[in-house]
Specification:
Radius of gyration: 15 Å
CATH architecture: 3-Layer(aba) Sandwich
Helix content: 10-25%
Number of domains: 1
Number of helices: 3
CATH class: Alpha Beta
Largest sheet: 6 strands, mixed
Length: 129
């Protein structure tokens, strides 16, 4: 079965045959394009994935330490992503991409019960209004 993912290669990534524990950290971008997210830590591999491609195998293979998704995506929202990652045992940071919000704490409070094991943060982009 072919995965529905895109991996942005890291020019500093380890060469084939290098043990897995020397690979650079991986960040998942779920339901968004890499260009739409804030800059990640240099040296981090970025893996674009659709929500339906999130599986235990994908997480085991790439061992992401962080994930990013839009607040509202095509056919899903951040709660769907949070639930999916939580159910799969992901224990990293979930960065939710959103416009500037008048009550960001209310959004975090809405997400928290769905992802008690995740560190959820909001990344506001665009003009403040």
């Amino acid at each position: 079965m072919e995965e529905d993912i895109n991996q942005t290669p890291d020019p500093n990534a380890s060469q084939p045959g290098t043990p897995k524990h020397h690979e650079p950290p991986c960040a998942l971008v779920i339901g968004a394009r890499t260009q739409e997210i804030p800059p990640v830590v240099p040296g981090t591999r970025v893996l674009e994935a659709k929500i339906d491609s999130l599986t235990p195998e994908l997480l085991a293979r790439h061992r992401p330490t962080a994930a990013a998704c839009p607040l509202i995506g095509p056919g899903f929202d951040a709660i769907d992503v949070a639930r999916r990652l939580e159910a799969l045992g992901f224990r990293g940071e979930l960065c939710v991409l959103c416009p500037h919000l008048p009550e960001p704490d209310a959004v975090l409070a809405e997400l928290a019960p769905h992802a008690p094991s995740l560190q959820v943060v909001l990344a506001a982009a665009g003009p403040e209004g």
